[in-house]
């Protein structure tokens, strides 16, 4: 029992310590977090093909290519327009509310509040650009845009690699 209590208090101390050391919200921290969390991959057009060659000034304008699955169709939103349109507290509420796949909502929600604020401040600093992305669609609705289909496929036959005996 004593040991458990000791372990528990040490654990709590560690958590408190980590909080105290957490970096204060900043644009620079947001730039770093967004890079390591892979947010460009879906929210920056052609990032998957061109990567860092896309100038920062052209990033995060969202994609009008949808992700279709059992949830309907979701579109990676224009984060620059969103960050320009809402205040920081509204942004935090949006992050907490979550939404459809394949947006990694859990990753964003797992960040400390200071880090979520940093992500917002970075996107706000980029300034508004681009056009709004289409609204999400419910399952079964006609899909008027290009889209990826997220449906598991049956395995295909596995043959021997060409040239192997
Ligand atoms: C695998 C693709 C993908 C990645 C990677 C991704 N997103 Fe998203 N994101 C989406 C999709 C799709 C939506 C729309 C979700 C919905 O309809 O609920 C979205 C929505 C959002 C929204 C809500 C936008 C709005 O206007 O309501 C925010 C904020 C957001 N993403 C931030 C991020 C951040 C920050 C990262 C990096 C940690 C990230 N996303 C990484 C696909 C992605």
From TrEMBL:
Residues 1-20 form the signal peptide. Residues 25-127 form the Cytochrome c domain. It comes from the Bacteria. The keyword Metal-binding applies. This is Cytochrome C. Keywords: Heme, Iron, Metal-binding, Signal. The keyword Methyltransferase does not apply. It comes from Nitrogeniibacter mangrovi. GO terms for molecular function: electron transfer activity; heme binding; metal ion binding. Transmembrane segments: none annotated.
């Amino acid at each position: 029992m004593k040991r458990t209590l000791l372990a528990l208090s040490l654990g709590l101390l560690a958590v408190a310590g980590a909080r105290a050391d957490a970096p204060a919200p900043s644009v620079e921290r947001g730039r770093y977090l967004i890079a390591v969390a892979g947010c460009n991959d879906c929210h920056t057009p052609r990032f998957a093909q061109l990567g860092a060659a896309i100038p920062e000034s052209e990033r995060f304008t969202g994609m009008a290519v949808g992700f279709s699955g059992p949830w309907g169709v979701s579109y990676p939103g224009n984060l620059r327009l969103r960050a320009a349109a809402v205040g920081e507290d509204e942004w935090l509420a949006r992050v907490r509310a979550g939404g459809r796949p394949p947006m990694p909502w859990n990753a964003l929600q797992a960040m400390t509040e200071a880090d979520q604020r940093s992500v917002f401040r970075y996107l706000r600093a980029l300034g508004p650009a681009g056009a709004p992305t289409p609204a999400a669609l419910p399952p079964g609705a006609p899909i008027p845009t290009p889209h990826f289909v997220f449906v598991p496929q049956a395995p295909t036959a596995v043959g021997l690699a060409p040239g192997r005996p």
